[in-house]
């Protein structure tokens, strides 16, 4: 991948021993589902993806020349949430993270965190989010690792934030049980703040799983592990997007970009042909019929469909469509190829048609 990550896919269930080694059973058990017994062995739904990525690191012996090593996964995790705390897409019991882990040397920590901050800013700005509240969360009361390890990790995060030039506030005791972290809350169109991105430095899991590398003196040393999620929970991020745009998505982001509407059912075959051609060009489209045209248009407006392609006898005869935009009004008659070209250009440039 462009950013140097290897993509992974790991199991949703593991033997309970894995979560004992990682410390989750000691420090995170109240957030985990009950274990299940299979063939006289205990198994556990994963609450996090980290231990699997550590096991993949352990498959082979690494040299200091191999670092940084970056792995990423769209991994679904399962966390026991009280029924009263569940809230639409924002808090669920099973969700997918754009989860990644970076294994690096101590002198690479600052650059790696800075790289994640740059990537986070780049991705969030694509969706129109450019206002953040940045929190640096420090050691909680219930944690693993000694004070020296926590001080090193916290300093590395501070150093990267200051290098980036972002102002931040301290969330005292808000860190994960295995390390301090940076949390970003994004601000939506109504000024509400939502927790999404997180970056965590971890000196503890490498120690608990005894992962090592060979340094330039042929000695075994322990690497640093960085956890990161840019969007965080994809479900929560989708919820934030829906709230931010009030369901009225711009063309490039809309699940359905265009709807093809026949004046009568006599034009339905041609509409289906148009729909197939638009789909083949990568445009998200659907054909709707079965109602009078005014109602089809009204339904598309109410459902906030960005583009409508109306087809009557004249359009069938000339092999064209008449286009209406939610944002720009009537655009007139045009060929299918012109519509495809203009729609794709507008999507790529994040503009309206």
Automatic annotation (TrEMBL):
Gene3D superfamilies: Anticodon-binding domain, Bira Bifunctional Protein, Domain 2. Pfam families: HGTP_anticodon, tRNA-synt_2b. The keyword Ligase applies. It is an enzyme of class 6 (ligase). It comes from the Eukaryota. Keywords: Aminoacyl-tRNA synthetase, ATP-binding, Ligase, Metal-binding, Nucleotide-binding, Protein biosynthesis, Zinc. InterPro entries: aa-tRNA-synt_IIb (IPR002314), aa-tRNA-synth_II (IPR006195), aa-tRNA-synth_II/BPL/LPL (IPR045864), Anticodon-bd (IPR004154), Anticodon-bd_dom_sf (IPR036621), Thr-tRNA-ligase_IIa (IPR002320), ThrRS_anticodon (IPR047246), ThrRS_core (IPR033728). GO terms for biological process: translation. Residues 1-262 form the Aminoacyl-transfer RNA synthetases class-II family profile domain. CDD domains: ThrRS_anticodon, ThrRS_core. Its EC number is 6.1.1.3. The keyword Repressor does not apply. SUPFAM superfamilies: Class II aaRS ABD-related, Class II aaRS and biotin synthetases. GO terms for molecular function: ATP binding; metal ion binding; threonine-tRNA ligase activity. It catalyses: tRNA(Thr) + L-threonine + ATP = L-threonyl-tRNA(Thr) + AMP + diphosphate + H(+). NCBIfam families: thrS (TIGR00418). Belongs to the class-II aminoacyl-tRNA synthetase family. This is threonine--tRNA ligase. It comes from Solanum stoloniferum. The lineage of its organism: Eukaryota, Viridiplantae, Streptophyta, Embryophyta, Tracheophyta.
